[in-house]
Amino acid sequence: MAFTKKDILDIDSLSVEEISMILNTAEGMKEISQRPVKKVPTLRGKTIVLFFQEPSTRTRLSFDVAAKRLSADSLAISKSSSSMVKGETLVDTAKNLEAMSPDVIVMRHSSSGAPHLIAKRVKASVINAGDGIHAHPSQALLDLMSVKEKKGRIEGLKIAITGDISHSRVARSDIAGFTKMGAEVVVSAPLTMIPKGIKALGCKLADDMESCVENADVIMMLRIQKERQGAMLFPGEREYASLFGLNRKRLNLAKKDVVVMHPGPLNRGVEIDSDIADGKYSIILNQVTNGVALRMALFYLVAGGGKRNADKA
Ligand code: CP
Q1: Residue 1 lies in a domain
Q2: What's the CA-to-centroid distance between 50 and ligand 1, angstroms?
Q3: Are residues 144 and 239 in the same domain?
């Protein structure tokens, strides 16, 4: 099968076969990061723009590292350092980027749908690095990769997701990805952090965190996204932690070989206790390691190894 997608905008627009192809490609890419010289010439001569209009540590750096490991030229633009502070619109900014002939634009934006808008207007491939509360497809793909690596499969697993589901693009993309690949996804959160119509996404809603994590193969904890909440949606962090924080007692309800995940950044002592985040069940830093390989795979498939590019050669 050839990979023919121009853009990676959300999980919904990827088929099971395309997701499997991305995961298989990423597994192959992982070995490059373990070599003494962590660089291959695969994307030499390709230009990748990292266009981040929201803060990021893991996503921006791992896309940058991924580009460099494939020998592509990467350059970064942020809102505060661009002419957007002088009033230039997003579309005009993107058209000006396009005029410099990039091959890929990686884009993070606070508005849901911004990468989709730009993808329709530029010839370059657009990869969504997180848009508003909508989607974070590369995070979901690296989460799938991390679970497959640890469990050997995704199908049939129980994935428990707890946290600010309403404001989490990671939650939406993870629910879409894990259900599409045959897992059962159960979510829990204060009712003020559950979006209307949550079950239409294909997941179950647990009455409390205890029933959510019971017999889970994977526990995925999410950060409370204070920056996206208009008003406080819970009385206080201490109360939130007592009802929805991952502690030893709740962890013990899950399967014996459970893995604990978190997309980062962590609020230690709020959604997750430090001894769990740093403990033997945690694969939080494996997620970060896999993020580099997964993003190398995305660059390779949209800019190097896909049918779209093979036809151009
Ligand atoms: N997981 C994630 O998106 O982290 P950053 O915001 O640091 O990129």
Answers
A1: no
A2: 14
A3: yes
Residue minimizing CA distance to atom 6 of ligand 1: 56
260 beta partners: 219, 282
pLDDT digits (tens, 9 = 90+) for 252-272: 999 999 999 999 999 999 999
Per-residue DSSP letter, 268: B
Residues 74 and 109 in one domain: yes
CATH number of the domain that 123 lies in?
A: 3.40.50.1370
AA identity, residue 79:
K
Pocket of ligand 1 contains residue 242 by CB under 6 Å: no
Structure tokens at 227: 């920056």
Which residue range(s) make up the domain with 190?
137-287
Residues 57 and 71 in one domain: yes
312 confidence band (pLDDT: 50, 70, 90): low
Task: For 174-185, write each residue's pLDDT tens digit.
Answer: 999 999 999 999
Strand arrangement, sheet containing 73-78: 73-78, 47-52, 104-109, 125-131
- CB-based burial of residue 150 (10 Å sphere; 0-12 exposed, 13-18 middle, 19+ buried)? middle
DSSP 202: T
